[in-house]
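Q: what sequence does this backbone want?
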């Protein structure tokens, strides 16, 4: 029996490509340490995940943001030595790393591709950002060229951070034949940032019919926190892989590359609640600020109120109970409830707890001031003295034991100046500086959902500074539910007084709040830095002149 027919043609199998997203925490300025971290991560990616390509975050060799370290005369030499060390290792996977790169007289925020000990590609970021916390145009020139190159036989485009938010770089890579875009990022956290990133990447990948690997930095750097959340979208705009936020790690994704580079779907982390997300940002910010600056421990004043309770919980979760010291500093206006609650918080979290009354010190100061104060009535002077005595105690403990003082003011208080200069503002790091008071309450409830560490009545009773008899915060401020909405519109969204009133708020409240925000700029300039969690925090984001004649209104 004979069989006749056409000969079957077998198509070549799709090419497999293993990309590892190196979501790591780098130390700004430590170029040798960061280089060693890149080498170690690449070796692990090769042995543990059989990586073809390892993609690192933006400016990983210097850490981000390096700020005026970029102006140091030895920068070019140190970066060149680091790149030469990476080449000399001749590691198996292709490395895509972020570094400042000089071309002639100009410095660029760049990316370098190293394969088998050779530099096979260099890219200069085309859109250095200059808004919010970013001032890259102070340091970097704008690149103008597209980089699309073959890595392991696959056409790959390289972009850096802001490039993906603008029209041009991704489109140009796709037009040049790239089937996969590698995007290196140092994108700081804010509450809604991950959702905005996903919406952008979905549109960019779908519209350009190209898969995108988005690799982000993780960790704290001064007031900024980088949340990771590295992702992969396929050419149809579908999220196929996502690394957890705030976790360092090497996250592999396999691609099958034929007409497109199709990522193989990976299990994704559960979507965190807003409170869980913010809480992890605070923990990350405190942990890295304390550890990267070499502090052995932290100390904070524990008042029995909600702000210090949440700050204490964050500190313990960031550093462990053995590195946290809490101090209650009562006065004649401190309630028995506050004393009980502060002790309960310290006991629940297992931290050292001391009680030092400020009464004798206050009396000594008032005796010394008796003559100049003669004939005057008590006012905020006496209230501020209490706060300043507490600040002196905490700073003395800081000096003696090498502990960083954590202050406990929240964003609502910092906005309107409801704080004492050289008093409760005395310290090195303000954990809640960018957290509105209404969110502080939500964070307290969230932390208690993990384990009960904050007494319920701390959350439910009216907030008070306890600097005068029967004092309540709302005696001198609108209710926090109203105050925080007004502050959001004025501080974060730049609404005028008239525009805020048009949103339905009482004009008297609005004008009072705006005046308090404006006249207290001088205080905020002298306040410690703290973790940024909103799109516009006090610090790098918002820069208003202390001395100015601007009138609120339209």
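A:
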């Amino acid at each position: 029996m004979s069989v006749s027919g056409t000969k079957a043609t077998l198509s070549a199998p799709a090419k497999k490509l293993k990309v590892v997203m190196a979501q790591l925490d780098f130390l700004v300025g430590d170029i040798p340490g960061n280089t060693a971290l890149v080498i170690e991560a690449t070796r692990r990616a090769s042995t543990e995940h059989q990586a073809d390509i390892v993609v690192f975050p933006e400016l990983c060799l210097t850490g981000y943001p390096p700020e005026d370290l970029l102006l140091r005369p030895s920068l070019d030499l140190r970066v060149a030595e680091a790149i030469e060390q990476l080449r000399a290792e001749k590691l198996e996977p292709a490395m895509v790393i972020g570094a400042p790169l000089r071309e002639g007289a100009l410095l660029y925020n760049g990316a370098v591709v190293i394969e088998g000990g050779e530099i096979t590609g260099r890219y200069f970021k085309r859109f250095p950002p200059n808004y919010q916390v970013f001032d890259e145009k102070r340091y970097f020139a704008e690149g103008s060229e597209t980089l699309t190159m073959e890595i392991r036989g696959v056409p790959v485009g390289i972009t850096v951070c802001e490039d993906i938010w603008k029209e041009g770089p991704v489109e140009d890579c796709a037009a040049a034949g790239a089937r996969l875009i590698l995007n290196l990022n140092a994108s700081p956290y804010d509450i809604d940032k991950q959702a905005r990133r996903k919406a952008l990447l979905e549109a960019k990948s779908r519209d350009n019919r190209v898969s995108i690997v988005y690799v982000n930095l993780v960790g704290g750097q001064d007031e900024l926190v980088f949340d990771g959340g590295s992702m992969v979208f396929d050419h149809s705009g579908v999220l196929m892989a996502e690394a957890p936020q705030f976790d360092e790690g090497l996250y592999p994704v396999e691609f099958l590359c034929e007409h497109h580079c199709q990522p193989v779907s990976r299990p994704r982390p559960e979507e965190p609640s807003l409170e869980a997300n913010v809480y992890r940002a605070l923990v990350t910010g405190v942990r890295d600020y304390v550890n990267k600056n070499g502090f052995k421990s932290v100390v904070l004043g524990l008042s029995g109120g909600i702000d210090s309770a949440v700050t204490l919980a964050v500190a313990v979760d960031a550093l462990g109970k053995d590195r946290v010291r809490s101090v209650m500093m009562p006065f004649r206006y401190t309630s028995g409830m506050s004393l009980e609650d502060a002790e309960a918080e310290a006991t629940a979290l297992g931290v050292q707890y001391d009680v030092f009354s400020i009464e004798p010190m206050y009396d000594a100061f008032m005796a010394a001031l008796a003559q100049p104060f003669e004939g005057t009535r008590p006012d905020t002077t006496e209230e501020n003295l209490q706060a300043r005595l507490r600040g002196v105690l905490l700073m003395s403990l800081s000096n003696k034991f090498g502990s960083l003082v954590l202050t406990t003011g929240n964003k609502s208080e910092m906005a309107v100046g409801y704080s004492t200069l050289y008093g409760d503002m005395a310290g090195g790091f303000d954990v809640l500086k960018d957290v509105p008071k209404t969110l502080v309450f939500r964070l307290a409830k969230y932390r208690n959902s993990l384990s009960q560490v904050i007494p319920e009545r701390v959350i439910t009773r009216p907030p008070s500074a306890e600097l005068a008899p029967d004092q309540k915060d709302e005696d001198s401020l609108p209710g926090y539910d109203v105050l925080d909405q007004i502050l959001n519109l004025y501080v974060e969204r730049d609404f005028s007084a008239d525009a805020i009133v048009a949103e339905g708020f009482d004009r008297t409240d609005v004008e009072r709040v705006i005046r308090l925000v404006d006249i207290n700029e001088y205080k905020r300039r002298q306040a410690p830095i703290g973790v940024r969690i909103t799109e516009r925090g006090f610090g790098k984001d918002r820069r208003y002149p202390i001395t100015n004649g601007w009138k609120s209104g339209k």
